[in-house]
Design brief:
Layout: H1 2-6, H2 16-43, H3 50-65, H4 68-77, H5 89-110, H6 122-194, H7 199-218, E1 224-226, H8 227-245, E2 249-254, E3 263-265, H9 269-281, E4 288-297, E5 300-307, H10 317-320, H11 324-337, E6 342-347, E7 353-360
Parallel strand pairs: 2-4
Antiparallel strand pairs: 1-3, 4-5, 5-7, 6-7
């Protein structure tokens, strides 16, 4: 966000780089004018007095450059936008008409300070050069307006990008706010079913929930975390579920150590595992197995949670893929990665359901000392 904001500085500003750039442009024009005059002298067989020609041309253009700050200031006060732009023309005609004699008054006053420079009378210079000088001023104003117009378009694009970024962050926060209460409701509901049947188990489950909430709330507010950190949070959640299901819940992992620093959305695995427990284990007697895998493929990262439950047809919410956990996961991936992030729901080999999350692979940057 800060990088976006820093790029929003106007092109024509009073900062030193902008001032140097403007002076450089006028200097280049003066030198080109001197080169053109020298070429004309050579064509007519006249000698070129560089010691007089270069200062004369530079002074001629620098006295034009003196009006640049005024023109920039006026162009910002009088933007050529809307249907009333035509009303800006008369004031500009008056300003440029007044600028020509002022420019030559400056020229005539400064030129004698240089050796071998004796300007013609002020009235003569104004009369001879009034049209050409007015055209030069109008060209300068046109360039300034073009740069200002481009700058305003760039500012709007940057503001739009900032607003889109803030909107995406707000959406992610809203989805997270919706996801956590859903998880808490299910967990508290599990505690309530145990509290009369097995008070000790309910107490342990509540203690694990407290540990998980403390860890989650202490985590810095950022949309992505390393996979290793996400797995630690998942372990706290699984401890809660093991208190509830005891030996009925078996969890396997196949996650290469090389993927420990892969960035994943915060709290991305918990709703997938919760979905597998709710629809793969809780709805049938006996034990159930959940397998959590991660692999890198074609520049992407694939996280998968597989259960051996009744499968899609009998899994209710899982079968329709409209549960809060999976729906929020889809929306979060879209907000973070666009079309590069997706959730796929499919039958698992041998029965059950496999939910996979695909997202771009990016490794977390190592923390500084």
């Amino acid at each position: 966000m800060r990088a976006i904001a820093s790029s929003a500085r106007p092109i024509l500003s009073w900062r030193l780089p902008s001032v140097v750039a403007v002076i450089g442009v006028w200097t280049a024009l003066g030198l080109l004018s001197a080169a053109g005059a020298a070429f004309a002298f050579r064509q007519f067989g006249r000698p070129v007095a560089w010691g007089r020609l270069v200062p004369d041309r530079l002074l001629d253009w620098y006295t034009c450059a003196a009006f640049t700050p005024v023109f920039i200031w006026l162009s910002r006060r009088w933007p050529l936008e809307g249907r009333w732009w035509i009303t800006r023309v008369p004031p500009w005609v008056a300003i440029t008409s007044a600028a020509v004699p002022i420019k030559y008054a400056l020229y005539v006053g400064i030129a004698p300070q240089f050796p071998d420079m004796t300007p013609r009378p002020l009235g003569t210079m104004i009369a001879v050069n009034f049209i050409n000088e007015s055209i030069a001023f109008w060209a300068t104003i046109a360039v300034i307006y073009a740069v200002e117009h481009y700058d305003r378009l760039r500012q709007r694009e940057i503001q739009t990008a900032v607003l889109k970024s803030e909107l995406a962050e707000a959406r992610l926060e809203a989805l997270g706010a919706q996801l956590h209460p859903h998880f808490l409701f299910n967990t508290l509901q599990g505690i309530s079913t145990l509290i009369h049947r097995d008070a000790g188990a309910a107490d342990r489950m509540l203690a694990r929930l407290s540990d998980l909430l403390r860890r989650t709330l202490a985590r810095p507010s950022r949309p992505e975390v390393p996979l290793a950190e996400e797995l630690e949070v998942l372990d706290h959640y699984l401890e809660i579920q093991r208190v509830r299901f005891q030996d009925r819940l078996v969890v396997d992992r196949a996650i290469p150590a090389a993927l420990a620093d892969a960035l994943v959305p915060h709290f991305i695995l918990q709703p997938l595992v919760e979905n597998a427990i709710q629809h793969g284990i809780a709805r049938h007697a006996g034990s159930g197995r959940i397998r959590i895998t991660a692999e890198r493929r074609d520049g992407g990262l694939i996280l998968a949670v597989t259960d051996d439950g009744p499968g899609i047809e009998g899994s209710g919410e899982a079968g329709t893929s409209n549960g809060i956990g999976l729906s929020n996961t889809r929306r979060r991936l879209t907000a973070l990665y666009g079309e590069a992030g997706r959730v796929d729901l499919s039958p698992a080999p041998g029965g059950g359901v496999r939910v996979s999350v695909t997202l771009p692979f990016r490794a977390a940057e190592p923390e500084g000392p």
